[in-house]
Design a protein that fits this description.
Blueprint: E1 2-3, H1 5-21, E2 24-31, H2 40-43, H3 50-60, E3 66-77, E4 82-91, H4 110-118, H5 124-127, H6 136-153, H7 175-193, E5 199-201, H8 207-220, E6 225-231, E7 237-243, H9 246-268, H10 271-280, E8 283-285, H11 290-300, H12 314-320, H13 350-369, E9 392-394, E10 403-405, E11 413-417, E12 423-427, H14 431-440, H15 451-505, H16 515-538, H17 543-559, H18 570-573
Parallel strand pairs: 1-4, 2-8
Antiparallel strand pairs: 2-3, 3-4, 5-7, 6-7, 9-10, 11-12
Helix pairs in contact: 1-10, 6-9, 7-8, 12-13, 15-16
Enzyme class: hydrolase
Biased composition (Basic residues): 548-557
Protein name: Poly(A)-specific ribonuclease PARN
Length: 580
C-alpha cells in the first residue's frame, strides 16, 4: 500500500492494526545518498570494528535523507499454515509545519539519485506529497509553543513586559504600542454594545501585538468574548473576537484544543508509525540494516549519540565524567574519615583509586537514569537499569570479548588474531564448526577452514618449500658444474693457442716472451676472461668466484710448464680434474 501525505491520516488505522496483529516486521529505507566523502567501499571496510563503522556512518551518512520507508508486517495463519503479509510504502519529507518549525537541510548524492531514477522512483511523491515528521525533541518544543499560546490566551503567558501588579494587569504596554491597544479595546467595546454584530475581525498585525492583545483582553474581559487567531490566504495572521456566553466560550475552547492536538499529530506525522513499531516490542528484521536503523533513529526519534567514553584509564575516565552529558555527584566523607580532593590527583594509591572508581560508577549510573521517562536524577546501586552489568568483569584490551560472565555462559566465540586479515576462531560447541565451514563455501569476501586443515596445509607448504630448496640447489650445482666445464674448455683453448703460437715461433718459449707474444697473449686472455665472465653471470655465480678460478688456473699454467717449455701436445699439458 502506497502512503503519502494526502492519504496518511485515512490509512493510519490500517497501519496501526497491521502493527498490532503482526508476529514480526521487516523494514527497508531508500536514501538521498550514502557517503558525503569516502567511497562506499572505504565507508564499509570489512575490517572495521563496530565502533569504527558506527563513527564513519554517523560522520559521513547522516546528512542524507531517508525519504522512503518500507514496512512489511508478517502474521502466521495456523489454520492454513501460511504467512499473511501487509506491506506499506511511506514517502516522507520534513515539510516545515509552521514558521517556527525546523527547516531541515539535507544533501543528495548524484549516483544514488540516478540509481533511484533508473528504477522508476517518483521524486514528486517525496517533495510534493511526502509525509512530514518530527523527532522527539522537535515535538516537545512544538508542544511547549502551544502551551505558551494557551497560557497567553488565559492571561498567564510569559512576556518581556510584566506589570508590577500582575493581579490587576499582566502587562505594561510599551509607549509605542499604547495607541494600538487602545484602538483595539475601543473596537471591542463597540462590539459588546452592538446588538447586530457578533464577531470582530481585527487587522493583521505582528506576533508581539497579538500577544499584547491576548493578555490585555484576558485581563480586561475575562468573560463574554472568545479570542482566536486565523490566517489569510496570503499567510497573514489576524485575530477574530466573538461575543459568546460562558457555555459557548467553553465549547469553543474545547474545539480549539482539539484542533491544536490534531495539528500536533499532523506535524509529528510519520514518527507516529515509528513510535507504534517501537512500542509493540516485536521483532524487526532487515537486510544490511545498520544504515536503515541509524537513519530511522536520527530522523524520527533523536540525534544519534556520540561515543562519549573513548578512554577507560581511570584518570581520563574521571575527567570525562565531569563533562556533559554527565553530572559529577555530590559526595562527602563521613565524620572521622579523611577526604580526597580530585584536584590534586593521588592516582595509584589504592584508597584514592577506589574513591574515583565509585565516583565514575555514580556518574554513569545516573546518566542511564536520564533516559527514563520521567528522568531520574539518582539511580540506586540495585536499580533494574544496571542489572545487565552485574557479575560482568571487563576484559581490558580484548576487542572481541568485552567481559567475563561470572553467572552465566561466556561468549561462545573466541578470536585470536594472526594478522590484519586472518584469525583463529574457537567455538564452544564443536558441532558448529562444520556449519560454519559449509556456510563459508558460498562466501566471496572470506574463507573458513578447520584448524586440522590449517595445520595440514602448513605442513604441506613446509614440505613443498623444503623440496623446492633441495631441487633448486641441485639445479644450481648442475649449472655450476656446466660453468666449470665451459670455463675449463676455454682455458684449454687458451693454452692450446699459446702452445701453437709458441711452437710456430721457435719450438721453445723463453720465460720472457717477445713483445709480439706478450701482445697476443694479452688479447687472448682478455677474450677468454670476457667469455668466462658471461658464462659466470648466466649461471648466477658471483663475479669474485670467477676471478678466483681465473687466478688459480694461471697458477696451474705456471706450475705445469717445466723450465718454461710448453709441450706441443695440449692434451698432456692440462686435464680436467674429477673434482675441484
Amino acid at each position: 500500500m502506497e502512503i503519502i501525505r494526502s492519504n496518511f491520516k485515512s490509512n493510519l488505522h490500517k497501519v496501526y492494526q497491521a502493527i498490532e496483529e503482526a508476529d514480526f516486521f521487516a523494514i527497508d529505507g531508500e536514501f538521498s545518498g550514502i557517503s558525503d566523502g569516502p567511497s562506499v567501499t572505504a565507508l564499509t571496510n570489512g575490517f572495521d570494528t563496530p565502533e569504527e563503522r558506527y563513527k564513519k556512518l554517523k560522520k559521513h551518512s547522516m546528512d542524507f535523507l531517508l525519504f522512503q520507508f518500507g514496512l512489511c508486517a508478517f502474521k502466521y495463519d495456523h489454520t492454513d499454515s501460511k504467512y499473511i503479509t501487509k506491506s506499506f510504502n511511506f514517502y516522507v519529507f520534513p515539510k516545515p509545519f509552521n514558521r517556527s518549525s525546523p527547516d531541515v537541510k539535507f544533501v543528495c548524492q548524484s549516483s544514488s539519485i540516478d540509481f533511484l531514477a533508473s528504477q522508476g522512483f517518483d521524486f514528486n511523491k517525496v517533495f510534493r506529497n511526502g509525509i512530514p515528521y518530527l523527532n522527539q525533541e522537535e515535538e516537545r518544543q512544538l508542544r511547549e509553543q502551544y502551551d505558551e499560546k494557551r497560557l497567553q490566551s488565559n492571561g498567564a503567558g510569559t512576556l518581556s513586559y510584566v506589570s508590577p501588579n500582575t493581579s490587576k494587569c499582566p502587562v505594561t504596554i510599551p509607549e509605542d504600542q499604547k495607541k494600538f491597544i487602545d484602538q483595539v479595546v475601543e473596537k471591542i467595546e463597540d462590539l459588546l454594545q452592538s446588538e447586530e454584530n457578533k464577531n470582530l475581525d481585527l487587522e493583521p498585525c505582528t506576533g508581539f501585538q497579538r500577544k499584547l492583545i491576548y493578555q490585555t483582553l484576558s485581563w480586561k474581559y475575562p468573560k463574554g468574548i472568545h479570542v482566536d487567531t486565523l490566517e489569510t490566504e496570503k499567510k497573514e495572521r489576524y485575530i477574530v473576537i466573538s461575543k459568546v456566553d460562558e457555555e459557548e466560550r467553553k465549547r469553543r475552547e474545547q474545539q480549539k484544543l482539539a484542533k491544536e492536538q490534531e495539528e500536533l499529530n499532523d506535524a509529528v506525522g510519520f514518527s507516529r508509525v515509528i513510535h507504534a513499531i517501537a512500542n509493540s516490542g516485536k521483532l524487526i528484521i532487515g537486510h544490511n540494516m545498520l544504515l536503515d536503523v541509524m537513519h530511522t533513529v536520527h530522523q524520527f526519534y533523536c540525534p544519534l549519540p556520540a561515543d562519549i567514553i573513548n578512554n577507560t584509564s581511570l584518570a581520563e575516565l574521571e575527567k570525562r565524567l565531569k563533562e556533559t552529558p554527565f553530572n559529577p555527584p555530590k559526595v562527602e566523607s563521613a565524620e572521622g574519615f579523611p577526604s580526597y580532593d580530585t584536584a590534586t590527583e593521588q592516582l595509584h594509591e589504592a584508597g584514592y583509586d577506589a574513591y574515583i572508581t565509585g565516583l565514575c560508577f555514580i556518574s554513569m549510573a545516573n546518566y542511564l537514569g536520564s533516559f527514563l521517562s520521567p528522568p531520574k536524577i539518582h539511580v540506586s546501586a540495585r536499580s533494574k537499569l544496571i542489572e545487565p552489568f552485574f557479575n560482568k568483569l571487563f576484559l581490558m584490551r580484548v576487542m572481541d570479548i568485552p567481559y567475563l560472565n561470572l553467572e552465566g555462559p561466556d561468549c561462545n566465540i573466541q578470536i585470536s588474531w594472526i594478522d590484519d586479515t586472518s584469525a583463529f576462531v574457537s567455538l564452544s560447541q564443536p558441532e558448529q564448526v562444520q556449519i560454519a565451514v559449509n556456510t563459508s563455501k558460498y562466501a566471496e569476501s572470506y574463507r573458513i577452514q578447520t584448524y586440522a586443515d590449517y595445520v595440514g596445509k602448513k605442513h604441506e607448504e613446509k614440505q613443498s618449500k623444503r623440496k623446492w630448496t633441495e631441487d633448486t640447489w641441485q639445479e644450481v650445482e648442475r649449472k655450476r658444474l656446466n660453468t666449470q666445464c665451459i670455463s675449463y674448455a676455454l682455458q684449454n683453448h687458451y693454452y692450446h693457442t699459446n702452445s701453437l703460437t709458441a711452437t710456430s715461433t721457435a719450438g721453445k718459449r723463453n720465460l720472457s716472451p717477445s713483445p709480439e707474444e706478450a701482445d697476443l697473449e694479452a688479447r687472448i686472455s682478455r677474450e677468454i676472461s670476457d667469455t668466462e665472465l658471461e658464462q659466470t653471470e648466466s649461471c648466477a655465480e658471483p663475479l669474485s668466484e670467477g676471478r678466483k678460478k681465473s687466478k688459480k688456473l694461471k697458477r696451474m699454467k705456471k706450475d705445469l710448464s717445466p723450465a718454461g717449455v710448453i709441450p706441443d701436445s695440449p692434451a698432456k699439458l692440462f686435464e680436467v680434474p674429477d673434482t675441484w
